[in-house]
Specification:
By secondary structure, this protein is an alpha/beta fold. It has 9 helices and 14 strands. Strand 8 and strand 9 form a beta hairpin.
């Protein structure tokens, strides 16, 4: 699941946008130029932008000095107005830490952006040797890399669902297991545990039914874990003849089914089946759910050495 990045520019700035795309592909991102079949036939540009902005993880707008604008009897070189407008859309949809504008030196941006640190570059014939441009692109890559490792609150509930799942289930199980002198299963005592959390590849089916099918396919048995507040069901991989002293526990977070419902409401779904846009949103939210969960696990003393997040096979 690579982060999807939109790169917008004017026609005059397309060579810079294309170069940025080339750089982002090298670091294993999934960048799209505005010319990459983003704008569909029979759809207005505004409608497309509003929908597409929600399907990308990040947006980069290249603001080259393409026009002349007169303000208070002074003439300035400015980017195309649609570039500033698109930047505003991505700012509103994704937030200030996920929308970037690269400003060509000598161009004038709207006064609302004064006081904000905006990456700047000088346009040259050979972009590969353009130190300022490459430095700013590298800074954006670093910011994107940091952001995709963090779970952030967004329009859809993946972060909240991950927090709730961890706090109300994973954390409780890990603490209970750490407090036990041992856990006895069919006469065999276990003092070591590995808690495997299975993340489904997609949300194409009822997650509760899908979890049952997964547990059955792996011949897992259900076990009750007693915590200070209540007992929790969990599945184990048990083999009486095995010499393995580590008990393998499994769970698939059925709470992520709420992501699917939220996306349907968000997109005002009025059809059977899933559009490509809906699948892209699901992919993004699943990735964010997993990232948030892994961050919570890595910051919990009990869970850190016990829990492993794996993808459904």
């Amino acid at each position: 699941m690579k982060p999807r990045i939109f790169i917008g520019s004017s026609g005059e700035g397309l060579n810079v946008a294309t170069y940025i795309k080339h750089k982002l592909v090298k670091v294993d991102f999934e960048p799209y130029l505005w010319t990459d079949d983003i704008f569909k036939a029979n759809n207005s540009v505004l409608e497309t932008l509003l929908k597409e902005a929600s399907l990308f993880d990040f947006g980069i707008l290249v603001a080259t000095k393409d026009d002349y604008t007169t303000k208070r009897e002074k003439e300035f070189q400015t980017p195309r107005d649609n570039i500033i407008f698109e930047f505003g859309i991505f700012l509103g949809r994704l937030g200030t830490n996920r929308a970037f504008v690269l400003q060509e030196e000598g161009s004038e941006l709207p006064s609302d952006l004064y006081g904000i640190t905006v990456p700047r570059f000088e346009l040259t014939d050979h972009l590969e040797s353009n130190y300022k441009l490459n430095t700013e692109i590298d800074k954006i890559v670093k910011t994107i890399t940091e952001k995709i490792q963090l779970g952030e609150l967004g329009l859809l509930p993946s972060t909240v669902l991950a927090i709730g799942y961890f706090e109300n289930f994973v954390s409780m199980i890990c603490e209970a297991l750490n407090m036990l002198p041992y856990l006895e299963v069919k006469g065999k005592q276990y003092k070591k545990f590995q808690f495997n959390i299975i993340i489904p590849q997609d949300l194409d089916a009822d997650i509760k039914k899908r979890a049952k099918i997964y547990f059955k396919s792996k011949s897992l048995e259900e076990l009750e874990i007693l915590t200070p507040s209540r007992t929790y069901p969990i599945h184990i991989q048990y083999d009486e003849d095995s010499s393995d002293e580590t008990l393998q526990l499994y769970d698939m977070p059925t709470t992520i089914g709420g992501i699917d419902k939220a996306i349907e409401m968000y997109m005002r779904k009025g059809h059977i089946g899933k559009t490509e846009q809906q699948k892209l949103l699901e992919e993004r939210e699943l990735r964010n759910f997993q990232t948030t969960l892994e961050n919570l696990i890595n910051n919990d003393a009990y869970a850190k050495n016990m829990v492993k997040v794996i993808n459904e096979d």
